[in-house]
Amino acid sequence: MSKAIKILGTGCAKCQSMTKVVKEVVDENNIEATIDKIEDLMEIMEYNVMSTPALVIDDVITIKGRIPTKDEVLTLLK
Question: By residue range, what is the domain housing residue 16?
Answer without folding.
Answer: 3-66
